[in-house]
Write a structure and sequence with these properties.
2 domains, Rossmann fold, 6 strands, alpha/beta
Length: 409
């Protein structure tokens, strides 16, 4: 098969990206396209991009709604490649038959076809050709895959000239092919800056709205570089432990916790990490959760629905190296609250209930109050929880009872 590999940050994915995928297939240049969102983009380090799971699942939503699932496949390989997401590293992994064959057969490609000798092409826009030799190990890329270059109407890039230039530079004939696509003028960076999402597919726009992405008030500007680096790394690491809904929820909580900390004068770095990791043990085996919980808190949390909170603190310490007790306590008590709760405890408790994807009730008023009076918003939230327990005829956990008393309820 002729296999197109299309990597990118997709922050956000836009119609220009879709035009390249569609063009490569419709022109018969490739049989299938494997789309690979970057996890740690080598050209866009620091705080520029959204966390990798946001970009991965936003891309998934669009591809699922747009293309034949037998022709276009989403690939999560970069979550499992340590370090910076260099194209050459991704290519080495994806083109390795020990990886590729299971990947294809799992997605419905017949084993005999998956085992064929394949030709690989890295899909890109023609604008990348003049600087391709500045990529990391470009000659190795061209030895594993050709470049399949999308040319838009009016594009004046001389493909033949670029091919000759790169061939001379690398000392072998560079395999560069081209195809014409519909002219879609869109760039993710421009979309982020302008906040205009006209060239973003509907599924991505809905995802952006649900998770409150690309706001003009970027809380990451208030976060230290060290904490930001940990946040992006931990968010990628959690992909292996949490399903889509839970992972997006916990990233939302991290960012909202940081926002509340910024507004109310708490430690933004600690809030970001505590919020992100608050549910890190939520989808572990229940018995493992129980054992981790007991190592943190003994028999204080006997309800299986509460295991994940203290278990999360143990897991955060052992898996992610968190040794800050204020962060570990905020994770431990994010479900129940506790007497003598710190500001960080309250922030994570509240952000867990109010993150933007929560839709279980009308949270408009509580969200507005949280921006101006943290304690009052916590009281409103705790009151709602207490009323729910009363309706259900359930007793509150002793920690929650102390929490409520401290709040003056």
């Amino acid at each position: 098969m002729r296999i197109g590999l299309f990597g990118g940050s997709f922050d956000p994915i836009h119609k220009g990206h879709l035009s390249i995928i569609k063009g490569a297939i419709d022109n018969g240049d490739v049989d299938i396209v494997i789309v690979i969102p970057t996890v740690r983009n080598s050209f866009k380090r620091g705080k520029i991009l959204n966390a990798a799971p946001y970009r991965y699942y936003m891309t998934k939503a669009v591809l699922d709604a747009t293309f034949n699932p037998k022709q276009v496949f989403l690939c999560d390989v970069e979550f499992y490649i340590p370090g910076i997401s260099y194209t050459v590293s991704t290519l080495k992994r994806v083109t390795d038959m020990s990886y590729l064959v299971p990947f294809l057969t799992y997605r419905g490609v017949k084993p005999k076809k998956a085992l064929e000798e394949h030709k690989f092409f890295w899909l890109c826009g023609s604008d990348l050709l003049p600087t391709f030799d500045h990529w990391y190990k470009p000659e190795e890329i061209l030895q594993m895959a050709g470049l399949l270059v999308a040319v838009r109407p009016g594009d004046d890039t001389d493909i033949y000239e670029q091919r000759a230039r790169l061939s001379q530079e690398f000392g072998f004939e560079a395999n560069i092919e081209s195809f014409v696509i519909d002219g879609v003028e869109a760039a993710s960076s421009s979309i982020r800056e302008s906040q205009s999402f006209d060239e973003v597919p509907a599924e991505a726009r809905e995802f952006i709205k649900t998770h409150a992405l690309y706001g003009t008030d970027d809380v990451m500007d208030a976060v230290s570089d060290e904490a930001a680096e940990k946040f992006f790394q931990y968010a990628a690491d959690l992909y292996d432990y949490l399903g889509e809904k839970r992972l997006l929820h916990t990233i939302n909580v991290g960012l909202l916790s940081a926002r509340y900390a910024k507004i109310h004068g708490a430690d933004v770095d600690k809030a970001l990490i505590a919020g992100l990791l608050h549910d890190c043990a939520k989808e572990l085996d229940l018995m493992e959760q129980r054992d981790l919980a007991r190592r943190r808190s003994g028999d204080v949390f006997n309800d299986k629905k509460l295991f994940h909170s203290p278990a999360g603190a143990t897991f955060a310490a052992e898996k992610f190296g968190i040794d800050d007790e204020e962060i570990l306590n905020a994770i431990t008590y994010h479900t129940t609250g506790r007497g003598g709760a710190t500001m960080l405890d309250k922030i994570v408790y509240l952000a867990d209930k109010l993150e933007p994807a929560r839709t279980y009730t009308d949270l408009t008023e509580m969200r507005e109050v949280a921006l101006v009076d943290l304690d009052e918003a916590v009281r409103m939230c705790a009151r709602t929880v207490a009323e729910k327990f009363k309706r259900q005829g359930r007793e509150m956990h002793p920690m929650t009872a102390e929490f409520v008393r401290d709040l003056g309820m």
